[in-house]
Specification:
Bound molecules: uridine-diphosphate-N-acetylglucosamine, uridine-5'-diphosphate
CATH topology of the largest domain: Rossmann fold
CATH architecture of the largest domain: 3-Layer(aba) Sandwich
Oligomer: single chain
Radius of gyration: 20 Å
Largest sheet: 7 strands, parallel
CATH superfamily of the largest domain: Glycogen Phosphorylase B
CATH class of the largest domain: Alpha Beta
Number of helices: 16
Number of strands: 13
Strand order of the largest sheet: 3-2-1-4-5-6-7
Structural class: alpha/beta
Length: about 375
């Protein structure tokens, strides 16, 4: 029997883990492939809850996280850690995901070891190098290093074609939709007591998340002020905000929002609780990339707390709106959706521009094709 090809998934933060977990599982099912998993642990607690939810035990754990870590330390520690892992494991292919510092460092380390790189969630762009920062540059550089590009949508593929990448592009859908199909259940019971107690029918439960580095400082202050005003002016609102563990975010969120009865600042949720909460809320306010993909699939309107987005598909479908980071604008757009039924109904429709739940099957098929283990490439997702 010929030796199985070693495919190593490398990830480090919560969103990468959520989106790579179903792929790790799919690779394990393929007889011709050996699935290896290396985590940098750029996030520690927020990564571990995902590993637990999907029952994944990494083969390698670089454990790099530090409090208030800088882009330099994340990148340097991940790169050095990967050198050792690559020497020991000698993978035939390294898969990285998205646009974090782990993504770029993982791809660069693999390139130095002359291991081919596959980029999952490839081709997203704003074409503004400082927004999102540093993600736009991370994903662009990762695209240059990769030989296989797994693009969620047609627009993502077109970005790569315009940049001159000609081979190895597959349009697969986003693996987050694969994950979502396994997590949401109508009879779900939350571990967090508050989430079982909330009145999702008669109150307007608004889910908030906010963490982006380019929002640190004045934009985040403005967003938090708008949230405070909303909670004070709209008694029918229950604002649920699982606060990112970044000390920068924790400080701003608590300073602005502590002490309000209808604002619930809680610990980050595990992915099962998060997806099931999202399925029940009225509205989502977020600067997250992942939430912009998940909420539309669940029929929930989203106001994006950013100036731009690399995910224009749901904006075009009408379920996501760019709110920016100006206090008045965020406040006014949120109030409109809380009070104007027509505006709300226009946005509250389930759309799936990001996938059909079979992205991981297509990616694994493309990898088998790359290694000559399959006669034909997978058909592109046509959604
Ligand atoms: C990172 C990614 C960002 C992604 C986000 C997802 C980079 C540069 N940024 O940003 O693209 O959208 O993850 O959430 O790669 N912390 C903990 N425990 C945890 C996680 C974080 O304490 O489990 C704290 C630490 O103090 C850490 C800080 O949060 O230093 C910031 O984490 P970091 O990964 O540097 O930045 P994020 O804002 O999470
Ligand atoms: N998420 C979670 N618990 C939380 C907040 C987010 O499980 O408390 C999930 C969310 O459903 C999505 C992913 O984490 O799948 C998004 O991560 P994040 O917003 O941190 O990063 P981004 O997507 O912006 O890179």
């Amino acid at each position: 029997m010929t030796e199985r090809k070693k495919v190593m998934c490398v990830f480090g933060t919560r969103p990468e883990a959520i989106k790579m977990a179903p792929l790790v599982r799919e690779l394990e099912r393929r007889a011709g492939l050996e699935s290896l998993c290396c985590v940098t642990a750029q996030h520690r607690q927020m990564l571990d809850t995902v590993l637990e939810a999907f029952s994944i035990t990494p083969d390698f754990d670089l454990d790099i996280m530090e409090a208030r870590q800088s882009l330099y330390t994340i990148t340097a520690k991940a790169l050095l850690g990967m050198e050792q892992v690559l020497q020991r494991a000698k993978p035939d292919l390294v898969l990285v995901h998205g646009d974090t510092s782990t993504t770029f460092a993982g791809a660069l380390a693999a390139f130095y070891a002359q291991a081919p790189v596959g980029h999952v969630e490839a081709g997203l762009r704003t074409y503004d190098r400082y927004s999102p920062f540093p993600e736009e540059m991370n994903r662009t550089l990762t695209g240059d290093l990769a030989v296989l590009h797994f693009c969620p949508t047609a627009a993502n593929r077109d970005n790569l074609l315009r940049e001159g990448i000609q081979a190895g592009i597959y349009r697969t859908g986003n693996t987050v939709i694969d994950a979502l199909k396994t997590t949401v259940r109508p009879d779900f019971t939350f571990r967090t007591p508050l989430l079982n107690r909330l009145d999702y029918r008669d109150k307007k439960v608004v889910l908030v998340t906010c963490h982006r580095r380019e929002n640190y400082g004045p934009p985040m202050e403005a967003i938090m002020t708008a949230l405070r005003r909303l909670a004070q002016d709209c008694p029918e609102v229950e604002l649920v905000y699982p606060v990112h563990l970044s000390p920068v975010v924790q400080e701003v969120a608590h300073r602005h929002l502590d002490g309000l009865e209808n604002v619930h600042l809680i610990q980050p949720l595990d992915v099962l609780e998060m997806h099931n909460l999202m399925a029940r809320v009225y509205l989502v306010l977020t600067d997250s990339g992942g939430l912009q993909e998940e909420a539309p699939a669940l029929g929930k309107p989203v106001l994006v707390l950013r100036r731009e987005t690399e995910r224009p598909e749901a904006v075009a479908a009408g379920t996501v709106r760019l709110a920016g980071t100006d206090e008045e604008e965020v406040y006014a757009l949120a109030r409109e959706l809380l009070e104007n039924r027509d505006s709300y109904e226009k946005m509250a429709k389930a759309v799936n521009p990001y996938g059909d739940g079979r992205a991981c099957v297509r990616i694994a098929d493309a990898i088998e094709y790359y290694f000559g283990l399959r006669a034909a490439p997978p058909e592109d997702w046509q959604g």
